[in-house]
Design brief:
Layout (H helix, E strand, L loop, with lengths): L7 H21 L4 H8 L3 H8 L7 H10 L4 H13 L4 H4 L5
Length: 98
């Protein structure tokens, strides 16, 4: 089983912000959870938990989901950093983060 990406101690707020970021990216692409699920091989239930901040995704799971949502690994790392730092990520959602 892959290691979870965030330690339990810090996971609450970080995962909520990360989930919101992924959900916003999905909305920008006009995709349903079902479409993303089929495209990346992650269950719809698991995606829903991640988007709602209830799931603690492994790095591998995020790497599967990111390309489907048009997120490069660099953008994913930046989004995680911004979420961890508690900053807003509007530029990252709009694709402006480099």
């Amino acid at each position: 089983m892959p290691k979870k990406w965030f330690p339990k101690k810090q996971s609450g707020a970080v995962l909520t912000r990360l989930g919101a970021y992924l959900k916003a990216r999905r909305a920008l692409r006009f995709m349903t959870l079902q479409k993303v699920s089929k495209a990346c091989g992650v269950t719809r239930a698991n995606l829903s938990k991640i988007e709602n901040g209830k799931g603690n995704p492994s790095f591998l799971t995020l790497l599967k989901v990111a390309p489907v949502l048009g997120i490069t690994s660099l953008k994913l790392n930046r989004a995680v950093w911004l979420c961890d730092a508690g900053r807003k990520f509007g530029a990252a959602v709009k694709g402006g983060a480099k």
